[in-house]
Amino acid sequence: MSETLPIVRTVAELRAQVAAWRRAGLRVGFVPTMGALHEGHLSLVRLAGARADRVVASIFVNPTQFGPGEDFTTYPRDEPADAAMLARAGCDLLYAPGVAEMYPEGAATTVTVTGVSEPLDGLARPGHFAGVATVVTKLLNQCTPDLAVFGEKDFQQLQVIRRLVRDLDIPVGIVGGPIVRAGDGLALSSRNAYLTASERPVAGSLNRVLTESLQRLRARAPVKSVEDWAIEALLSAGFHSVDYVEARTPETLARLGPGQAEGPVRLLAAARLGKTRLIDNMGD
Known about the structure:
This protein is of the alpha/beta class. Helices cover 38% and strands 18% of the residues. Strands 1-4-3-2-5-6 form a six-stranded parallel sheet, with helices on both faces. A three-stranded antiparallel sheet has the order 7-8-9. Strand 2, helix 2 (39-51) and strand 3 form a beta-alpha-beta unit.
């Protein structure tokens, strides 16, 4: 495929292209992103391409999901480089709207998903998931794809999106893409670019601690003791603080423990290293 990727910036242009594909009997896949793309994103594009005839990717750094003091203004942006990577990965169209297109003057509606959005990052980043749910609902309605692919690295986000699609009867299949990791196990993330040379080796210990924690849970160690051990292990490894390490049920993210975990387990963590907040998860 050519590295010149068609780009549209309005809802009308996006819908016109998707409608043309539908008239041709083609199945459309969608991969929403905030740009600063890496191999993890590209794996989602390829997954969408394996399940659909045409793939749309979006790039929109969504201001409503950033809290006060978070990195909205400094979030990495490089649309030309992102577009070239998307083209090589098999993307057919880039949707790159501006803030005014996504949130016209007077916009007054938000989407809130209760339950699954409330623990973990819902506590650590108040308002974050309302911003996510609102922008994803808008993007899905704008693109009207047959399927949309989201990475499992943001596992709680994925479960929030699955819930809102079910609850609002949005006719789209939601596909979770496996986490892509560096050689030392660090989950690929746009925010990894913030890590300094001395912080980068420490960051890899997040995966190692979660791996051992999951092994302990599966060996029937009590949930509370495993969570406490993981927090201490991360701090000892050099993380500056830990927002959470918690064992939850995969679908509803209900709390497990404090005793032995029964049934499927998803272990989720968020920890801070310098200016960088890293998240990861693993489990059933």
